[in-house]
Amino acid sequence: MTTVNDNMEAQNEEPQLSKPSDSKTMVVTTSAFQFLVPETLPTEEVPEENQTLDPLSTYPWSEGENEDTLETLDKDEQKDETPHDRPYWTNKTEYFLAQVGFSVGMSTIWRFPYLCFHNGGGSFLFIYILMLFLVGVPLLFLEMAAGQRMRQGSIGVWKAISPWIGGLGYTSFMVCIIVGLYYSVLLAWNFFYLVQSFQSPLPWLLCPIANNLSAYDPECARTTPATYFWYRKVLKATDEIEMGGLPILHLSVSLFVIWLIICISMIKGLKSTGKMLYVSVLLPYVILFCLLIQSLKMKGANFGLKNLLAAKVPALYSVEVWRRTGSQLFLSLGPGFGSFTAISSYIPRSNDCVIDAFAVAFLNLVASVTITVFVFATLGHLATKDNELCYMMNIMTLINMVDAEMIPPEAKPPKNVYQDPSSLYPSWLNSLPEHIKIAILPYLVECDLSEQLNKAGKGVAIVAFSNIITVFSGSTFWAIVIFTLLVNLGLSTMVGIIQGIVTPLQDTFSSLREYSKLICVPMFLGSLLFVRPSGSYYVNLLDDYWASLALFFIVILESVAMAWIYGARRFLADLSIMLGRPISPIYRWLWCFLSPFVLLVLFLSTLIHLSVKKITYFAWDSRIVSPPHSPRNRPHIPPRRFPSHSPNIPPPPKLSPPESISFSMSVSQHLFCKEVQSHLMTVSHCMADFT
Known about the structure:
The chain is mainly α. It folds into three domains: 4-80, no CATH class; 92-204 and 211-235 and 247-385 and 459-689, Amino acid/polyamine transporter I (Up-down Bundle), CATH 1.20.1740; 401-453, no CATH class. It has 28 helices and four strands. The longest helix is centred in the middle third of the chain and has 51 residues, at 353-403. The radius of gyration is 30 Å and the shape is globular. Residues 1-84 and 625-691 have low confidence and may be disordered. It comes from Sus scrofa (Pig). It is found in: Membrane.
């Protein structure tokens, strides 16, 4: 007969397991976990005798504080059943769309093709893919897993890991606020272009007629219609950054519409936000596929793709190329904002965040490569057209010279050369006798397809896209398509940025949960600062000189905090139990050594780069108005973004005042150093200014 005491002793000897009813995660007590250590955590050291090991509650402070600060998984799940439960995404699809939407933004469309063109083509792609999977994916996994494990936003996660690094969460919170303020302005610009696209002809195709005159506006005649429309009609840009003014009405209305859409998407919390993501995330991929097919059918597209795939070996050894690649990786992928952490805090703990990290990175890469192929194919088409025009000019020159009896009649091109100048003209020219070639070559313009590609590819931004649209037949339709793509990408990114703001606020002040949508009001009012006539210059300075440096600093501290303060082994033990399977120990090596080293090098190189160069911005100089030049005699100022000489862009000639105004101050004084160029700006300036 078994006594009551015997039953109690038997119960104490058995390992006790508890499994929450709504979770696949099994939680074990300390005694049971000791039996599972060899199978579940092969990388962990075997505990000494009489030593307990509980990876779900071992944190880098005292044991007494462990029990009060962090609860076990089963207690968390019981807490989730209360009326004030933390909400979940409606399904895994909406959660995944939120992660992808935040990762693939406008910088992927604007900045990536530009950097790829000017930093080695295939070499840049190789460096980007290497850094994406060795540095980007582990950091994505870290942020997703931290939010999923702690079920809190950036502030709560880093406070829970250690009170000493709680400020890291506040830093991410502030970065989201500042970036959200000016990123919404980028979105408003694209929305205004989208509205203006519903007319034919497009307003940026032709220069406007000057008042009471039959000639074009002289300011527009000095530049391209697209550049004039951007600076004078959209931005109404001032000559200098110090010239402020009231917010521009049409941009303020566009900005209000953007924030209204964001606010409406937040009315029912994650439920309404998730429904919007089906459109704002999936539609851009459909549009990208259509643009890709359309561009590949154009004449000369293969030449642009050859230049994309041609790897330039010297770029692999350039520190500047690696720095720019790293900057693009973090600005495009998005670690450091705290948004991945916030979005992951609304998903059950059993979700496989390892696969999610790889999938998000892969789709980001697909979008980047797709838009780059589209841009290079289009640039190849533009270069081919320009090269054909160059051939036609030479043909007309030869015909006129033969008619004027300046050169022998044998130098007159045949009539069939007009059918395909790109192939027939070079072959005909090479077939001429040597003495005739020597006689006519001094009168001809050198037509180099590679040089035409370099001229066509000086920039890829909002003005560049507006110029690219003119290549397609039915430009109005394609303008609507392209700017719909940009607006949807911007909206999905703004959803992630807002989650990086709202989630920490709700975790810190639970009473704000019902009023979270009101965050749109102060954000809209703050964004009005950037739609003033000089606002675009501040957007340029913040995006170029502040955002990347802040993100590098945040991600370095995240890696150190999780890998060394909390402990990479300890965190992997948490995830092994949370996901129900072991995690590859390679992440411990990546978090502890490779990621901090690469991030530190990128941070220091960026800091050095900013300290030794002038802080510049390009401005529209309305004081320079002169009679328009003919197209052949129009002065050309090669575009330049930075005072430091780029290997791909020749330095511009020195200009006499008032065409060039230069003003600089010491960077240590925290004052804007500026170099104001005249309004003779090509498409490339806009890419360098507003990516």
